[in-house]
Amino acid sequence: MIVDTGAIALLTALIISIYSSFASLLGGAWKINELVTSGKYGLFTIPPLLGIATGALIYAFITHDFSVKYVANNSSLDMPDIYTWVAIYAGNSGSLLFIAFVLSILIVILILNTSKKLPVSSPYINFIVSIQLIFLLLVMVALDNPLDRLPVTPEDGKGINPLLIHFGMFIHPPTQMTGLVAISIPFSIAMGTLIANRGQFDDWIDIGRTWGIISWIILTFGLILGSWWAYTILGWGGYWAWDPVENSALMPWLIMTAFIHSIMVQKNRRMFRTWNMILIILAISLSQMGMFINRGGPVPSVHSFAQSTMGWLFLIFMAFTLLSSITVLFFKSNTIKSKNTIESIYSRETIFLVQNILFIVIAAITLWGTIYPVISDLFFGQIVTVGEPFYDKMNGPLMLLLIAIMGIAPLFPWKKGSNIKIAKNLITPAIIGLLPMAIMLAIGFSKIITLFGVWIFGIAATIIIRELINGTISINKKYQSKYKTSIKSFFSLLLSNRPRYGGYIVHLAVLLFAAGVIHSTFYAIQKDIPLSIGDTAQVGKYSFLYVDFRTNELENRSETTAIFNVSKDSQYIGSLESNRTFFYKFKIAATRAGIRSVPMEDFYIVPSTFSKNGDAVFRVYINPMVWIMWASGPLLFIGAILSIWPRKQNRRKKS
Amino acid sequence: MKPNKSRTMLTDKNYNYKEKNNLIRLKIPTIFILICYLFILSCYQMSGVTNQEIKIQNVNRSLMCPVCPGESIDQSQHPLAVQMRNVVETKINEGWTENQVRDFFEERYGTAVLLEPSKEGVHLVIWIIPIIIFIISFGALIFVIKSMLRKNQLLKKKT
């Protein structure tokens, strides 16, 4: 009964959203406000309707209603109860429903946000965004309805891939999917403005930028959470493998990063209008491309959870989005011509442009590597794999270059700078940056790439911190009576130009993250050690005693846990549990590493197969600076939120 | 909002006590960076991992597990991957070179087993295209910047 209500709600949502898209478009074109408003109200009804559909599916999952096909395919009686709540996005059609539900909520926020501020563009914005929604709903209703029934109700479901039974399941997939679908919002704002011929007024910039950064934050967290999940469960001590599906989430992120930078140029200088349109079109296309690769894509991936036969549909929709947007852009390009232009090579505009191009090149190379196996299969008839070494060699240096550009960018002023001044300002950081490099060299680090990296990091960090200190000092001087302490002046500095200082904080976080990546890539220690109970082994500063193991035989799996007493520098620091679970039905083993994480390094231990008496080969990693990498996440969040936090209205008018 | 406002605040003209501030400005970043890197240095340690083991790890990381999509045999928990790891270990310990072991697996499982596509024959294209992408993009960038600068010069002459 509840399931059928959900199915009806889903169908109703489709019909209403089709109506709303037409009402919005025609109402906008014929200037009939009533029609626009009715379209708007139509879209307001979608979240409750999809809420009913999603609720019905969740209900079917937690009551183990295997008459529903999707429930039978993606859950079973023996899975932990709590995971039945989130199994809705374990497969293709359920995750589509989840995405559509999230998108419909975002649309409501978008409408509330834009209908007053962008009255002319708003109908077109609603039209564009509802097309995305219609596509998702149409695919579900017509081809793969998550609420479809089976002719015969099976006793038990097929179950869920055991790798998904992890705390990460609650946070990584929803964040990642939300982030990808959220790109639709800035895209719709940009395209809607363009169709409404409002491009030259630049009134969408603040809203578009805010939404761009919001989707960027969510995407970033999706990626970080996914890396963290891989790190704890896949048992290879790493967090990123350039897997096709990882790539397909990374590419839109790269373009969005370019977009939220270059939109600052439009905000400040009223130029790069066409360029920003191109960036946001690229971002949405790549995010749809990601849906294609994830759902029935032709490339093998560890993420093949939501495989289906209709991946090509998503490719077609991507082509449709790309072509129609480019066509609109082409015919409306005369409405967004800018009078302003770059005035000097030594300007913030130029450095943003260089940065944009670098991001696009990295995304293009990633795309090339991801689809090359398909090309090779089609044209050369040979199946190949493009893996980590390719991306490391190609993207690694480019990313280091990006960090260098990020570091020196604050030295470039808007409009026009002088090369002598920039060079002068660069000298001190360049010298300070040499210091850590020299120390590393003296102690015996000799890899050129890391030494060079450390130098660049030193420069970038020094420049940002110097900017913050200089600003604090000058604010302290200027308002000596108002802000007595330098801490107070520091905070008032952060609030004085939020996009800039929020950005600096994000950049510091990026530096920390990148330092973590470089160090854990180049200085990780890995060792396989066979141990019996009672044995002690030593890796680096750590020695560990294999104390005991226990096996827990359950109906669907057997869990084996090894217990270690770990000492560092012959001082006892605690006991660690390291676990391996074998799932009979899937013939898949999932491991849970024992990790002891301190800012400097992670001690990471993971078992492979156990014998009956507990003998096993354990793999030990000592990964430097991984903790710092995860810790950069909250810092990044603070910075990004600061950069979009609105000023009070009266203060904005003054400046 | 005027972007240049806070920029001008940062220039040296506004300071009365420039010398004192110069010291602060230098000191704090230096201290900060040194602290950061002392952290890093402290994790440098003798690992006790032999060259032989590093060789084995390198080979493991460059071979794809044929039955578990998207994972190298170093990463995978699959029994076949474990078996392949054991083969790599024996071969390297017998004195084979890394490339010999890779060729050995390529013969058995085909080119798809190599994570890094070869740099010979048709597959050279995978390495060349990124370089072409890079050159074209930056060529276009330089072209655009130059033409924008030229446009700027024209605008200036007009006014």
Task: Briefly summarize what is shown.
The complex is a heterodimer of chains A (655) and B (159). With 655 residues, chain A is α+β, with helices and mostly antiparallel strands.
Which percent range describes the beta-strand content of chain A? 5-15%
- Rounded to an integer in angstroms, the radius of gyration calculated over CA atoms of chain B is 28 Å
Task: Report helical residue fraction of chain A.
Answer: 55-70%
Provide the low-confidence segments of chain A as ranges: 650-655
Chain pair with largest interface: A-B, 103 and 79 residues
- The succession of helices and strands of chain B, N to C, reads HHHHHH
Number of domains of chain A: 4
CATH-scheme architecture of one domain in chain B = Orthogonal Bundle
Mean pLDDT of chain B: 78
* β-strand number of chain B: 0
Give the overall shape of chain A, derived from the CA principal axes.
globular
Low-confidence runs of chain B = 1-17
- CATH level-four homologous superfamily name of one domain in chain B: Cytochrome C biogenesis protein
Number of helical regions of chain B: 6
Shape of chain B: flat
Please provide a written account of the structure.
The complex is a heterodimer of chains A (655) and B (159). By secondary structure, chain A is an alpha+beta fold. Chain A folds into 4 domains: 1-165, no CATH class; 176-338 and 352-387, no CATH class; 398-522 and 634-654, no CATH class; 525-629, no CATH class. In chain A, 62% of the residues lie in helices and 12% in strands. Chain B contains 6 helices and no strands. The longest helix of chain B has 35 residues, at 124-158. Chains A and B meet through α10, α13, α14, α15 and α16 of A and α1, α2, α3 and α6 of B.
